[in-house]
Amino acid sequence: MSYDTLYFVFFLVLVWAAFVALPGKGCILLAASIVFYSVAGLRDSLLATAIVLVNYGFQFPVKRDARWLWLALAVNFGCLVFFKYRVFLASAAGIDFYERGIVIPLGISFYVFQLSAFLIDIGRGKAEPFVSLARFALFKLFFGQLIAGPIMRWRAFAPQINGLFDGTLARPRFVGIGLSLCVLGLVKKVMLADSLAPFADNFFRDGPASALSAWVGAWLFGFQIYFDFSGYSDMALGIAFLFGLRLTTNFRQPYLARTPQAFWQHWHITLSSWIRDYLYIPLGGGKGSFARQACVLIAVMGLAGLWHGANWTFLIWGVAWALAILLWRLAGEHLARLHAGEWALTLTIAMLLWVFFRAPDLQSALSYIATMFGAKAAGSAALPAAAAMSSLVVAGCIVLLALHWLEAKLFTRRATAMLMRMDGPLLRGFLIGLAFWMVMIPKTQDAPFIYFRF
Length: 454
Hints:
Layout: H1 6-21, H2 25-38, H3 42-64, H4 68-92, H5 108-123, H6 133-141, H7 154-166, H8 175-206, H9 211-242, H10 260-266, H11 269-280, H12 290-308, H13 312-336, H14 340-358, H15 362-372, H16 387-410, H17 413-422, H18 425-439
Helix pairs in contact: 1-2, 2-6, 3-4, 3-5, 4-5, 8-9, 8-18, 9-14, 9-15, 9-16, 12-13, 13-14, 14-15
């Protein structure tokens, strides 16, 4: 069930009405979350149920003896590898695997990472098991963050889940802010990401006809995926606010970051912190010689790339980001002297590497990048022939960056305080009307959230 559909809006209204009017608020959200995910189909629902039940059972032996953690992680990541990477691994090993149309269970990467982090925290003594299966299930299955995150930690989310069931969680106070975030997310998704999708698809499907076309195509996809995923994340935050819950922020204007490391501190923040806390630091990152740190970083970022998809392009995407971070570690002081040039270089690297993320295979990615740097183009996707129209396209690309900058200016405590003062029936009715209007806008093509396939 996608957030940018009319039936989800009706679903959300019904759940919120039941949540406000009836007792048993935790059970209401759990039931709604089960209904929400059941739309994905029987196979996905049974798999998610099985993984939740297995992890519920593992939390108690892990609490008694941390050695059980290894078996629990083997089960979790074994499921992830089987359902997501079996074809890729077979092909990499030179095995002719006939199953090509593999369909990845919806949200499996996200709920495996969240449940695994929870068990690791129990093993480290930083989390406590859920005695109640209902509370444990809602901890992972809450429909506001079930499919594409954010990846919530026990210390941030468990007290809120317990408060729901115990009746001690404060009533929803930020309904206006929640609706505002939902509308903002719909604007990003419906009006921006979905509008950019056909143009970006055209460049990557047909191939760019010139270097300028190639850079424009990469730029359009870079903003398409940002508006798509950050739009989803904004809606997830907004939905949680409607029920008195607070999720972790997943984006903070990453294209304004001055360094590659800062980019990853502002892009998909919960994944970045997961990788840091459960892979990079345990493997010895940040300690020892530079060579050791470099090896750990490359390995970890390579795995982060593969987390996004079973393709060599994702592996190269992650490793390339590691090399960019290492470059800044070696020459950061010199690069900082470039001032705005340092930011421009980071942004250029981000847009360049999106080609590996978006291209269907490695050969297509390398051909696309070669075109970006002046090689003879083999594609047919070109900018408009008229100079005025081409200039208009370039101006539109600049406007996308201006919107990104404007978003940073609007995300302030002052804006939040203003929304709280204005909160009331008039503002809520206006925002609900906007939401209904946006989900009813006719679409030229079906463009599901990009991260739903991860």
